[in-house]
Amino acid sequence: MKAPVAALAGRLGHEFRDAALLEQALTHRSAADPKRRQLDSNERLEFLGDRVLALCMAEWLSERFPQEREGELGKRLAVLVAADTLAKVGDAIGLPAALRIPPAEGRTGLRQRANVVADATEALIGALYLDAGLEAARGFIRREWTAAMEADPTPPMSAKSRLQEFSLGRGQGLPEYALIGTEGPSHAPLFTVSVTACGKVAEATGDNKRAAEQSAAEALLTELGLG
Length: 227
What we know:
The chain has 227 residues and is mostly helical. The termini are far apart. It is built from 12 helices and 3 strands; from the N terminus they run H-H-H-H-H-H-H-H-H-H-H-E-E-E-H. Strands 1-2-3 form a 3-stranded antiparallel beta sheet, covered by helices on one side. Strand 2 and strand 3 form a beta hairpin.
């Protein structure tokens, strides 16, 4: 086992019975075997891990904030399972260094891309679930998300939601988002998005359209003096 993978395995606190699951969780689709139509990449595990994370987080939020209504819990959930939170967790456990990515793609900075790290973090959760069940996945999530869970005593609000609330509160209507363009390879595109609200415009780039919209909203809030 390579040093970065061994270090990551140690941070997970779990010895995989099926080592192939960990290898698959760390395999970006750029390194998958095209003859198998990407089935050996981490995409299927990411799909599963996304659902496991949402379940474990909803359970945890219900326990942690018993007096909050569904809407408030939903705001917390949206932030805790967002790509930027997942990427921060992945960075903290040393996941980027352990990713299986072709050397050429590694030189482009692919392994540090937030969406790549976020997807692999979800894939790790899926792998833990398949290897040892819900308890193993829950233990990892509760350990690595503790700081994020305790970060804000009030229900957080995303930049898009804050901008929408500000704009509507001033009778300016809903912010308008537009995709300006995309660039990069199909397995690692970059999206550029603009947002218009309250007579101002801001642009931002992200690893996916949703992330670009959030970044654009943050940029416009800053321009409006609300950042």
